[in-house]
Amino acid sequence: MDCMKGFHQNGFKPNFLKLLRIICHMGIYEYTRMPFGIKNAPAHFQRMMETIFLDEIPEGWMVLYIDDIIIYAETWEDHVQYIDRVASKCTPINLKISLEKCNFGQKELLALGHKVLGLSLAIDQNKVAAVLQKPVPRNIKEMQYFLGFASYYRNHVKHFAHMTSSLYKLCSKDVVF
After folding, report:
1. Is position 102 within any domain?
2. In terms of domains, do 70 and 102 share one?
3. 120, 125, 130, 135 alpha-carbon torsion, rounded to 10°
4. What is the CATH number of the domain that holds 48?
5. Mean pLDDT in each 10-residue stretch from start to end of the chain (177 residues)?
6. Can you spell out the DSSP letters for 71-134?
7. Stated pTM of the model
């Protein structure tokens, strides 16, 4: 499930509005909703979602990631019940869900670069294909990008630290690439 226009559903306390004023030739404008691009917006929105679903998260059938809600259940009946519980939390506070972006009753899904199937987690093969098509890193920045991407999947690679130690050495200041 995906919250519709996630950050824009999140209002501000009045004393915070003045911090996001925009002054231009047409006047002074204030955001009344959280705009995209503010440094701490994702953390604030995540905290808001965790507060809303404080009772549901410990039960273990829900995962929240910013404006995405992943619900998993062993039976269709439980799945429908959990969806209803999420909806019952969203409705009173006017938190809107984008039905166009929702997928219900899926056996597997792609989330955050992973393929989730039941209780197993695998690397999204589209991400692997994208890396294989990239040229070999030619400088420190490109190597850092590659290592950052690879590190995201380190739990899927046995002896990752050992395998990448020589690549990390290439990122030090004294090394000529």
Report:
1. yes
2. yes
3. 90
4. 3.30.70.270
5. 73 71 87 78 87 88 88 90 93 87 86 82 87 87 90 90 92 81
6. E--SSHHHHHHHHHHHHHHHTTTT--B-GGG---S-SEEEETTEEEETTEEEE-HHHHHHHHHS
7. 0.67
Domain that residue 158 falls in:
125-169
Residue 101 and residue 133 in one domain: no
On whether residue 174 sits in a domain, the answer given is: no
Length of the chain: 177
Contact (Cβ atoms closer than 8 angstroms) between residue 113 and residue 127: yes
Domain co-membership, 160 together with 97: no
Helix (H) or strand (E) holding 152: helix 140-152
Distance (Å, whole) CA 3 – CA 6 = 5
Distance, first Cα to last Cα, the chain: 45
